[in-house]
Design goal:
The protein starts with a strand and ends with a strand. It is built from 14 helices and 21 strands. The strands form 3 sheets. Strands 1, 2, 3, 4, 5, 19, 20 and 21 form an 8-stranded mixed β-sheet that branches. An 8-stranded parallel β-sheet has the order 6-12-13-14-15-16-17-18. Helices cover 28% and strands 23% of the residues. With 481 residues, it is of the alpha/beta class. It is globular and about 75 Å long.
């Protein structure tokens, strides 16, 4: 691999100006002097741009994100009828994305879609991916024509979405590859993909046939655990033939649903109902599944959003005694913060959800939002955080999440529970798989920003200008040239 010299780079937040030599995919020298290099070595004057460890999005659904980039955006709909009006102008089999019905005054129903677009197959997917809203024709296309409401939640939704006709595999792979290139343009060097699929096989095919501009940790859905065990897959190991781009990820297990769907499993019932949410995996089954995975070198990643669900997940980690991840951890019991400090446990959190969901959280978790999306509380308790977007729930743009983590807002609204804001250096480390600083010997997975992010208004971090991204010393994005 050709060597690269970055001249006049600011080393980290508020850091000094240095010259950085990269060879064989790693940083080999950080110096005040310009090293003597061979004429063939590429030399780039960064002109004071800030050099940072490359960013990871540690929770994405990559195929769904790639498809969402081509779907009808209904995220601005304030009612079910408004969502319908947004998809009506489109032709043919129409898929919309992004609705949030947690605050709607009216309810989605297949009859609304049928009245507006008679006989046309239309599907709307909620922002949190847990609810699908189908027209009668769309229901008929997947053999569910007798469904009473056309509103499918949780596993029923996942199964229905998986049954929809897809474009050819090669076209989908191209869309995914394009999405990795777009992510690289925002400084992303890696993703943890929680797609509900055989991710090791799918990504191996993509790496062989497409230009892929990020590293990928390939998760394993719970229903593919036995298959993964038979294949000898182990979390953290490289995937053969991937050129170092792929590694085996954790096994994804659901304890509960989501806030917007009111299926997050909570200690307190949702207002106006006796329901506390949905328990997807009972405690005994959760511990058994985690134990099976860990016995074969596979770490669990446990989806838990409500405070009762998160406590159940923590109980299971203590019972099994394994490392792993708790994904989301949006609402926590006061006594559970300290339990996240156990060695080997990562809290995979999505800060962009806090400003997105603040109103629905206040409505459905009244009096408890001081311990919701509580990142400062987790850090103070000794937890290890890794940031993600949950794309397509939020855009695959780490700066969007960084802004929300540091500012606790993303628009003109005042910061929401500002006591839960975290410092930028900690947020950046959580977005870089724990990497802090630029040191000789580190992998040359790097991002260069036009200015020093430490000098930006925290709420403006989402607009940070990326000059370039390097993956193992290879340019995956360069603003000029």
């Amino acid at each position: 691999m050709p060597s690269l010299l970055l001249r006049n780079a600011r080393i980290g937040l508020g850091g000094p100006i240095r010259n950085v030599l990269i060879s064989d995919g790693r940083i080999t020298e950080v110096t005040t002097e310009v090293p003597a290099v061979e004429p063939a070595v590429e030399s780039v004057d960064v002109a004071g741009g800030t050099l940072l460890p490359g960013l990871w999005d540690s929770h994405v659904h990559m195929l769904q994100w790639a498809q969402m980039r081509r779907r009808v955006d209904v995220s601005g709909a304030r009612t079910a009828r408004e969502a319908v009006e947004l998809v009506v102008p489109h032709d043919g089999f129409t898929i919309g994305y992004g609705f949030r019905d947690g605050l709607w005054p009216d309810a989605p129903h297949k009859s609304l879609l049928e009245a507006a677009a008679p006989g046309r197959p239309v599907v709307l997917l909620s922002n949190d991916l847990h609810t699908g809203w189908f027209s009668p024709a769309a229901l008929a296309s997947i053999g569910r024509g007798e469904h009473e409401t056309g509103v499918l939640r949780e596993h029923e939704c996942y199964e229905a979405m998986a049954a929809l006709p897809l474009p050819p595999e090669r076209e989908l792979d191209r869309w995914v590859a394009e999405a990795t290139t777009a992510a690289a343009a925002r400084g992303v060097v890696g993703v943890l993909d929680f797609e509900f699929a055989d991710n090791v096989t799918d990504w191996s095919r993509r790496v062989a046939e497409q230009r892929i501009d990020v590293r990928v940790a390939c998760s394993i859905p719970k229903d593919r655990l036995e298959e993964a065990v038979k294949r000898g897959l182990r979390t953290g190991e490289p995937v053969a033939g991937s050129g170092g781009l792929l590694e085996v990820g954790p096994v994804k297990i659901f304890v509960d649903g989501s806030l917007n769907t009111r299926t997050a499993y909570c200690d307190d019932p949702y207002p106006g109902t006796g329901a506390r949410g949905l328990l997807e995996t009972p405690p005994e089954e959760l511990a058994s599944t985690m134990g099976l995975a860990w016995a074969h070198g596979l770490r669990p990643a446990v989806h838990a959003i409500g405070d009762l669900a998160t406590s159940i997940a923590l109980d299971a980690f203590e019972q099994v005694g394994c490392p792993g991840r708790i994904e989301h951890a949006q609402l926590l019991r006061p006594g559970d913060f300290a339990r996240f400090a156990r060695p080997g446990l990562v809290a995979g959190v999505q800060p962009a959800h806090a400003p997105d969901d603040r109103e629905v959280a206040e409505l459905h978790w009244p009096g408890r939002t001081g311990r919701a999306f509580a990142y400062a509380g987790l850090l103070a308790a000794g937890a290890t955080l890794e940031l993600g977007s949950d794309a397509p729930v939020a855009p695959l743009d780490p700066w969007d999440g960084l802004a929300a983590a540091v500012a606790r807002t993303d628009d003109e609204r005042a910061p929401w529970h500002p006591e839960q804001a975290i410092p930028l250096p900690d947020a950046l480390a959580a977005a870089a798989r724990g990497r802090r600083g630029i040191r000789a010997g580190d992998p040359a997975d790097l991002v260069i920003t036009a200015g020093d992010p430490a000098e930006a208004d925290p709420a403006a971090l989402g607009g940070v200008e990326v000059l370039g991204t390097l993956l193992g010393g290879r340019w995956t994005y360069r603003q000029h040239g």
